[in-house]
Amino acid sequence: MKKKKNYTRTDKAAYFFLLPAAVIYLSVIVAPVCYSFFISLFKWNGIGEKQFVGLSNYINLFKGDKIFHTAIINNLIWIVLTIFVTMTIALLFAVILSKQFRGRTFFRGFFYFPCVIAPIAVAIIWRWIYNPNIGFINEFFKALGINFTQGWISDPNVSLYAVFAAALWQAIGQPMILFLAGLQAISPDVLEAATIDGANGIEQFFLIKVPLLKDTFVIVIATLIVAAMKVYDVVQGLTGGGPNNATQMLSTYMYSQVFQYNNVGYGTAVACIMVLMMMIVIIPYVSFTAKED
Amino acid sequence: MEGKTKKITKKAVLYLVLIILALIWVVPMFTLVATAIKSKSDFYSGAGLFSMPAHVAWDNFVNAITKGRLFTYMKNDLIVSCLKVPLGIFIEALAAFALTRLEIRHKTGTFIFFLIGMMLPMQTALVPINVIYSKLGLLNSYFGLFYVYVGFGISFGILILRGFFNGVPRELDEAAYIDGCNKWQLFYKIIFPVAKPAVATLIITDFLSTWNEYLLASVIINDNMKKTVPVGIMTFVGEHGTDYGYLCAGVLISVIPVLIVYLIFQRHFVEGMAGAVKA
After folding, report:
1. ipTM
2. Per the similarity annotation, which family is this (chain A) (predicted)?
3. How far apart are CA B36 and CA B34, in angstroms?
4. Most Cβ neighbours (<10 Å): which of A190, B53, B171, B172?
5. Model-level pTM?
6. What's the rounded Cα separation, in Å, for the pair A37 and A28?
7. Could you give all domains of chain B from N- to C-terminal order, each with its CATH number?
8. Could you give the 3-state DSSP secondary structure of residue A187?
9. Min distance A161 CA to chain B CA atoms (Å)
C-alpha cells in the first residue's frame, strides 16, 4: 500500500462525469450572466446599433429613477415579509405535520397542493378572489352581513400586501417540505432523552429542535431570499406592477424596460443589479456550506 | 388515566389547528372549483360565489379544450417536461457522483461553482438567451426551451443528489470494486439506484417547475401552436374583462398531470429532500 499523497489529483474519469453538467451550466448560466453585464454598458433598443455609455445606465437608475427606487424597496419589503411570515408559517405547518396522526399524508399533500399550480395561474385566481364586486373576500363579508368593500389590488396602500398574501398561499409548500425533512433527520433518541430530563414540548422545540435545524434554516432562508428577489409571475399576473407602480418589483421593471419600452441596455442593468444583490445572499450561504464541508 | 386524557386533548387541539388552517388554505381552491362550474350567465344573473349553479357549466371545460387549445399546450409542455426531467436528473447525478465519489482537485470549489446558479435570477439570462437564440434560430423550439431549463435546474439537482450520495456508505463502493465494477458501473448499477428517494423528490420539483415556468417560456415561445401551459393559459385572459369560469376550468385541467406525478412520487418526497438539509 502506497501512502496517500497529501494533495489530490483529479481523477480523469471525473472530467467525463462532470462534462455534461459543466457544458450546459456554462452556456446557460455563466456565459449569459457575463454577457448581461456587457450589454448593461450600452444604450440599445435590441435591434439597432449598440451605443457604449459606460456605467451611465447604473448611474441613471440610482440617481434619478423613482420607479427603480420603489422596486428595490418593494423587493426588500418582500424579503422581510417572507422571512418573518412565510418561514414562520412553513415551520408551524412542518411541526404539526411531522407528528404522527391519521390523515397526515393527506394534509401534507393538501398544504403542498398550491405549489402544483402555475404561479401565473395562482395570480389569476387571486385576481378573481380580490374582485371588488363579486370576488370571494367581498362576497364573504356580504354573506356575514358586514358592509365592507375594499379594492384589494387597486388600492396602492394595500396592493403590495394583497399580492404577498396571494403569493404566500403558494410559497409555504417548499420551505415546509424542507423543514419536514430537517425534522425527520432529528434522531428520536435525542428527544427521548430530553423528555426524560423533563423538557416540555415548547422547551424541546426551542432548545433542541431549532438548534438542530441549523442547516435547514440556512437553506430555507437562502432559497426564500432568492425567491423573494426574483419574484415575478404572481406580481405580473395580479397587478403587472401597478397600480401606479405600487407593486413594481425589480423583475417586473426589468421586463417592462426590455420588452415593452425596448430599453434593452437599461433593463439589463436592472437584471445585473439583481445579481449583485443576490451576491449578498450567495456569499454567506456559500461560505457556510464550504465550512460544513 | 390522567395521561390518557391529556393525550386526547393534545390530539384534539392538533386537529382543531389543522382544520382551521385547512379552512383558510382551501379558499382559493374552493374559488377555483366554484367558478369553473358556473357559466357566465350564472354570474350575470347575480348568483354569488357561494350559491350552487342550476347546471354544472361543462361548457367551460369543453371551451378550454376546443377554443382554448388547452390540449395543444399540455402536449407541448409534456414534451418539454419529459425531455427535461429525466435528462436533467441524469446529468446532475453524473456530476454529483463525481463530486462525492471521485478524486477532484478542487472539490468544494467545483461544488460551490455549481451551487451559485441556484441564486441567480432567470432575468439575467433573458436578454442574452434571446439574442443568441434568435441568431441560432432556436426561438420557438422545444429544444431551445428545454436546454435552458436543464441549465437552471443543475444547481438544485446537484445540491440534492450530492447530499444524498454523501449519505450512501462507502463500504458499498469497496464491495463493488472488489466485485469487479468499474467507476461507471458503480455509478449506474449501485449509487444511482440507491438514491431513489432523492430522484423521486427531484422528479416532483423538476416536473413542477418545468410544467409551470412562465417567464422564459413567454420570451422564447411566440408561436401559438408551441406555447406551454402557463403561457397558453394567459391567452385566456381577455384584454377587457376575463371569463373566469372558462379560465378556472382550464387551470383545473392543466393541474392534472402534475398532480399525477406528485401522487406517484410523494412517498419519498420528504425523505429525498434530506440531501438539501444536511450540508
Report:
1. 0.86
2. Belongs to the binding-protein-dependent transport system permease family.
3. 6
4. B53
5. 0.88
6. 15
7. 2-61 (no CATH), 67-277 (1.10.3720.10)
8. coil
9. 17
